[in-house]
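Repro:
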Amino acid sequence: MPRAKGKGNPFHKPGGKGGGQFTTGPGGLGSFKLVGGPIGVGSTLEGLPDKHPTRVKVDKAAQARGFKNAQQAIDECASKIDKLVSKGSIVKGRRWFAEENKLCAARAKKYKVPTHVAIGATSALSPRCSYQENIRYSNAVLEHHKEFESVGAADAGIQGAGLGANKRMALDIAFNGDPDKLTGAKRRSFYNNILFPGRTNDVTVDTRVGQVLKEVAIKHAEGASKPIKAPEGKKDTAQDETMRFVSESAGTKDMDAGAGYYILADAIRKVAVDRKESPDTIQTVVWLNYGGEGH
């Protein structure tokens, strides 16, 4: 991995895919040794002209949910997020990734792997599980992968380490040490946020963060072609529909993230700029507010 510089890095091209860049804003606690660059993540519409194909696709997805365009959705999500911010929540928000960095470094030392490998395995296993499950799954990978000769053998031999595809990705990183194997904006952003707390412009969007978009989109359901309606009964179908919006078109041409992911990530960045905080701090404020787990 190339050594990172204080700001800017070779994975980021302004006006291009974006992401994976160092921010010049404040955030995080303590000092952290920069031992590599953030991996590339494209999850922002900032700087893209109206007719840019990525913006056009995200606008279309937003309009299907009743918004005028993506910018309206970003602004309304940002307004809701800003109301969650307080002095106390900022303190907790700044601490989370800084503490996670230290915890991953301690786990790396325990299992005799590089810190970026511990963070990479944790990020690979993060979708569709709780924080405590993630720690348990990644500990199993980090502790036992050296008992096997290959990723395939370890995949078959290590039990209780999460979903199949996620486990194989974590094992690939454990064996080969390359975090660029991580797929998806969520995993890649989570990796950057943990490795460089308070230092990058990347935003981790998961189901809890998605609740902001759900609550905003419900107000636009009437007349929408793909409405997100208020939940009825025990099953929260609105949350399911919102997460489909968050992941819509991810991985297709011109879409490094899902449509709703761009909206939420840019909404969080907007609040971060206004509050003079790092995006990962504001994202953590949201995550904790909707039930995320502290350390």
